[in-house]
Structure formats: structure tokens, C-alpha cells
Amino acid sequence: MGAATVTRATIADPDEESALLQVRDLSVSYRTHGGHIRAVRGVDLDVRRGEVVAVVGESGSGKSTTSHAIIRLLSDTGSIDTGSVRFGSGELTGMSERELRTVRGAQISLIPQDPAVSLNPVQRIGEQVAEVLRIHGLSTRHTARADAIEVLERAGLPDPATRARQYPHELSGGMRQRVLIAIAIAAGPKLIIADEPTSALDVTVQRRILDHLQQLTAQSGTAVLLVTHDLGVAADRARRIVVMSQGRVVEAGPTREVLDNPRHEYTRRLLASAPSLNTAYSRVSASRVSAAEVPAPAAPGAEAVADVAHLVKDFALPHTGGPRRAFRAVDDVSFTLRRGQTLALVGESGSGKSTTARLLLRLTDPSAGRILFGGLDVTTARGEQLRQLRRRAQLIYQNPYASLDPRLSIGEVVSEPLRVFKVGDRAARVARVRELLDRVALPSTVINRRPAELSGGQRQRVAIARALALRPELVVCDEPVSALDLSVQAQVLALLAELQNELGVAYLFISHDLAVVRQIAHEVAVMQAGRIVEQRGTEELFTDPTHEYTRELLAAIPGRGAGSTWGRHPGHAR
């Protein structure tokens, strides 16, 4: 294995007490048309062998830029201006690209955040993992396929032999993220840089993935630099926390010290905005949740907006020999959505949440079952009947960066549904757009700007305004805050609740984040393997769950242990 041999000769292992990774005075800037923008300013951090260090902060704080600069994976416009990055005995900032290729993957691996960008859409999953194994000399052409399946299994992917034959678009978001984790751990690196590795995963899968990384640290001394916006995950998993704001480290220290006694105002704001640290299940502040903050139970007498009964959806699986097989994504699902109420669908990735939503909106056809909207059967609706359903039911997507047309102005984005359905004349539509922007707390000055000129939170507010343009009776919210910073997430959730109180709209709220669900939902339906296994009022479900799977989900909410089980450097006592 020639590449690995060069790597071992270039970078020697440090002793146990010295830093495996040592970053000093790191500054990074990006070239723009308006000049250079300083994204990282004088950052210092250490990661020891077998240690987990979490870097937390909001978008734009510089945490991802710092992690990418360590292995010199900045964009073409980015550059390291000053500073040192030492890994073992080697200085990474002075290495040639050829030398860096012997370090990346074999010695330091990266788990990127977005599998939609990071995976090759035209290559099968198994081939992408096998390619990593062959490059690093860990498999031959004949053994790579079987070895790739084994790595996928280690990463927690169900039925890895079948998944290895599928393409990225055939997997759920959580499954795709696990493929990225499999690629990162394939070569057994000494340091894993995990850039929001579980942001797309539900809490139980998140726990299994992080538990697997924990086993690496315990068994092989692998270190982890964990970049995350989820303070609950950082609290549970890191020995030390580094808090970044505006490109600088504003606070750093042992996890318990930072969480229990934050010194910087920015750290205190982050903690106050973290739903998983503000729930009755949190170790940090069980007293912060009052009865007034929990939505009232769903009112059974409220008018039904939509009813689904015994929904079933089957998908054909790739042919691997023998009889053809199908995967049942939704299996006998029934529920009612009521005016002015929020029903949350929760469950693991692949449990059928998003497929159920697509069936409700008639974006895909059910294999069996019935969908009633306002008492009208729309199960097989076509043509004008389906078009009218689109007007009465709208969707807010997960990713505000991908859901808005970058070529349109904000005014055009919000008014597009009005134009499509020929609602009002031009002047009336402009007035409606200004009203909607005001309702979602955006200044009218954004009307002529493009989506790229807005922050993620502002874009999601635009998406909400667009969804409300036609005054729908139902809005499906598919992970609407998972891509947002904690403080922005809290603002958007408050906005959704306020709009529901004003307009009486019904929400179907899909989320893997149970702490978020508790803040906004009146009722919760728990899905497992395509079926609803428990459905109850939110507070009742959280305080007295009856199904074992529900109890497992609640037990996996991050932020309960504040670093109690992971991130200990060998030989260090708490």
C-alpha cells in the first residue's frame, strides 16, 4: 500500500499527551469582487489522540472554513493567510498537493455535511465505497465489492448488499449521510473531521452513528473534530467545546464548564436557543420548559382539513436475482389533520415520513388507501381537481438554499403561486407580496433582491411567505428548520406558531428532532418501518410513552449527558 507507506514516513505519531492536531493563529480569507473577506481570524485549537473536540457556532462563524482549511480543501477563492496546522510531526500548510493526497483519507478523513453534493449521482453506492478502499490499497479489484458492503454495514446502513447496488437518489437523506460516514471510516484514519455529520439524521440513527465513532476512539485512538450547530450533540459527545463567532474563538474549555458556566454572551445566547437543551429531558435545564410553552393538545372537535385512511406505498427494489421484490415504505397509515392544529410525524430516516407527506399532497400515487381533503376524495384526482388541491395545500421544503429559484427576485418567488393561479392583477399581487413579507417579518426592501443575497433564515421566511400566498388550508413542513442555526430556528418556529394562531392553517410537521417537535406540535404520530406505532397528544407522549420505539426515540434526544460518556482522552479523568 504505497500511499499509506509515504504517509507513515511523512507524519509520525505523537506521544499520548501531545496534540495529534495543533492549530495556531489560523487566518483564512476569500477573494470576492469587492475584495478579500476574512472568514477565520487567529484560531487556535488542539485535538489529542482519542479525543473529541466540538466546534460550535452559527452559520458564518467560521467553523466549517476552519475544518476545511486544516486539510486544505478550501474553494479556489479561499486561502490560508497566516498560521500553522501541525498533524503529528508534519506541517500541513507547507505540504505539496501530492503530499496532502497521502494524508487525506488515510490519515485524516472528512465527513461532509451534504450528501446530495458529495456523492456521485451516476455511480452506485457500493462502487463509491469500493473506490476508496482500492485507492488506499485496502482491497483488490476482486475483494472491493464485498469489503464495501462490510464497511456500509459498519456504518449502520440497513440491508447493505441491496443498498450497495442502489444510486444515491434511491436512498433517504439519512441513508446517504451514512454512506458518507462509511467512506470516511473505510481507511481507518487517525483523525476524523466530522462537519455536521448527523444534521440530516433522526435521533436514534444519530446516536448509533456517533456511538460507532465513539467505538473508534476507544478501540483505535481515532480523534474526532466535530463541527456542529447542535449543542445537545456537543454536550453529549465532546470532551471539550470550542465556540466560534464571526471567525474567532470566543470561548473554549471542558464541556461541562462551558455549558454550566458560559462566560461569553454569545455562548449564553446559543444555549438559550438550543431546543434539546431546553426540554424537560435535558440535564442542563429541566426547569426552563413551562406548561405555557407546550402546545395545547389537539382539539378533537376542530374541523378536519384532511383525512388519510389505510395508506400504502410500495417501491420496486433493484433486481438482485430471484423473484422481484418491493419495499413497503408506507404501511396502513391513517390520521386526521385539523384546522389550527399541528400533527408531527416523527421517526427514523426511511420510516416513511416524507413518503406519507408526498402521498397526502398527491405528489406520488398510493398503492392502496384513501385521501380525503375537505371531505372530497382526492385519492385518484387528476387534471383540474388535482390543480385545486395544489392551491389548498402547500409545502415548505427542508433546504432554503435549494428550494428558491436563484434567477428570480424575492418578489417574483413569493408571487409565483399567485401568477400560476391567476390571482389578482399585477398591482394586487405586488400588494399581496408586501403583505406576506411583512407577515413573516421581512422588510419590503428585500422584494427586489435575489435569494443568494439573503441568509438561510431569511430564505426560509421567504419560503413560508410563498407557501401562504394562496391562503392554503394545509401546509406540509418537511424538516423546515433542520438546515438553520439554533437562534434562527427558534425564530422560525415562533413565526410558524404565530401564523397558525392568526390564520387557522393546519400543519403536518415532519421532523427528526424531537426537541423541536415538542415546541410546536399539538399531536405526535410516531412512525417505524412505514407504520404509525403510537399517536397521542404531545405532552402525553413525551411524559408517558407507551411504545418501546417511542421510548427509544425519547431516550436518544441529545443533550442529556453533557459529555458524560465520550470524548475522554486516554489517561484523563473527569
How is this structure best described in words?
By secondary structure, the chain is of the alpha/beta class. The protein has two domains: 2-273, Rossmann fold; 340-367 and 376-555, Rossmann fold (3-Layer(aba) Sandwich), CATH 3.40.50.300. The protein is built from 21 helices and 20 strands. The protein has a six-stranded mixed β-sheet with strand order 6-7-8-3-9-10, sandwiched between helices. A hairpin with a 2-residue loop joins β14 (368-373) and β15 (376-377). α5 (125-135) packs across α6 (144-154) and α15 packs across α16. The longest helix has 18 residues, at 203-220. The chain is globular and about 70 Å long. The two termini are 40 Å apart.
CATH class placement of the largest domain: Alpha Beta
Number of helices: 21
Provide the structure class: alpha/beta
Q: Which segments are poorly predicted (pLDDT under 50) over 5 or more consecutive residues?
A: 1-10, 279-292, 562-574
Computed over alpha carbons, the radius of gyration is 24 Å
Q: What is the strand content?
A: 15-25%
CATH architecture of the largest domain: 3-Layer(aba) Sandwich
As for the number of domains, it is: 2
Q: How would you describe the shape?
A: globular
Share in helix? 25-40%
Largest sheet: 6 strands, mixed
Distance between the termini: 40 Å
Based on the structure, what is the oligomeric state of the protein chains?
single chain
